[in-house]
Specification:
By secondary structure, this protein is an alpha/beta fold. It has one domain. Helix content is about 35%, strand content about 15%. The protein has five helices and five strands, in the order E-H-E-H-E-H-E-H-H-E. The radius of gyration is 13 Å and the shape is globular. It starts with 5 loop residues before the first strand and ends in a 6-residue tail after the last strand.
């Protein structure tokens, strides 16, 4: 099974790329892809063309996944203002789900929610 590579949206820390390099090799952040400040449509197209699973807290990408379907697949994080460490822990704990989701043909959106709210 191929490990999914993730494209982290601007609303997530750029440090996730390094902190999740082992479980999700080949992942990148929109800033590293030259997409800082670009419209959502540009980020969407980049993810689709380059084979990324788009990871975001942005509701706009959830809506785009309903309207357009995959590719790209979208992991929508419901984490509020959780610290980066909590997001890393959450993505580690849901790695098997993300791997399965990336391989499915039909599903375009995976929602992952934090069990605890952060201010």
């Amino acid at each position: 099974m191929t490990k999914p590579k993730l494209l982290f949206d601007e609303n997530l820390s750029f440090r996730l790329v390094e902190l999740l390099a082992e479980p999700f090799p080949g992942s990148t952040h929109v800033n590293d892809a030259g997409l800082h400040g670009c419209p959502d449509g540009d980020v969407w197209t980049y993810a689709a063309v380059h084979g990324f699973v788009l990871v975001s807290k942005d509701n706009d990408f959830r809506q785009l996944s309903f309207l357009r379907g995959a590719p790209p697949k979208v992991v929508w994080l419901r984490v509020g203002n959780a610290p980066t460490k909590a997001v890393v822990d959450l993505l580690h704990s849901r790695k098997a789900d993300i791997d399965s989701f990336a391989q499915e043909a039909e599903t375009a959106l995976l929602m992952i929610q934090m069990e605890r709210d952060y201010p």
